[in-house]
């Protein structure tokens, strides 16, 4: 039975985080294989107090406190991934405190599909998209995962889950390009596995945290190194070529 590490950044969203945790226990088949890693800021007293009083779940929750950063992908998601052990992270699953799991036994379903995909890929270097209800930001873009999943082998190979230069939005698209262009991408899209609450789905207004994310995105995209299009045109092609050469070398 494969293990899942769910990586969840949060800031002052205790009610939403609680609902997220409840959605896991209400849908998961084997909670003992679920490990939730919550990454929160050292000045976030709400989350700190919640962590001290959260109810006991049959899955394990790790609480990681760190200095606040505007780089969600590198300093929360990639940071959280690197805290995982080999035993608790056969799969590393990018999550958020504003998603809700919808499908019963999602863990078993995902495991079955991923392991089938890996049958002819003994290196297990794959990236997976799990369908949620977030609409594409542009209809001309391909269907890419808002909350992707990787194997521990992929994390070890690349050293990251999401692009570290893009601060928040857009790294999911770059993830898709890297794995899809090398024929190592699996889309699990037979149903909607997660509901995404917030402005992206017109279900909730922007709160203070969401407004800050938007400000960071709009400010830092003016920097070439942090720009999604620059990374798509200059960084991702190099990563794709290097990955192709590596796969060719081990085939």
Observed structural traits:
251 residues; alpha/beta; Spore Coat Polysaccharide Biosynthesis Protein SpsA, Chain A; 8 helices
3D architecture notes:
This protein has 251 residues and is of the alpha/beta class. The protein has a single domain (4-250), classed as Spore Coat Polysaccharide Biosynthesis Protein SpsA, Chain A. Helices cover 39% and strands 17% of the residues. The protein is built from eight helices and nine strands. The chain has a seven-stranded mixed sheet. α1 links the parallel β1 and β2. The relative contact order is 0.14.
Output the helix-strand order: EHEHEHEEHEEHHEEHH
Tell me the number of strands.
Answer: 9
Number of domains: 1
Which class of secondary structure composition applies to the elements?
A: alpha/beta
Sheet with the most strands: spatial strand order: 3-2-1-4-7-6-8
Given as residue ranges, the uncertain stretches (5+ residues, pLDDT < 50) are: none
The coarse overall form would be globular
Percent strand equals: 15-25%
**CATH homologous superfamily identity:** Spore Coat Polysaccharide Biosynthesis Protein SpsA, Chain A
User: Main sheet, how many strands, which sense, barrel?
Assistant: 7 strands, mixed
The CATH topology is Spore Coat Polysaccharide Biosynthesis Protein SpsA, Chain A
User: First CA to last CA: what distance?
Assistant: 27 Å
The quaternary structure here is single chain
Radius of gyration: 17 Å
Number of helices: 8
Helix content: 25-40%
> Mean pLDDT, nearest integer?
97
CATH-scheme architecture: Alpha-Beta Complex
CATH uppermost class: Alpha Beta
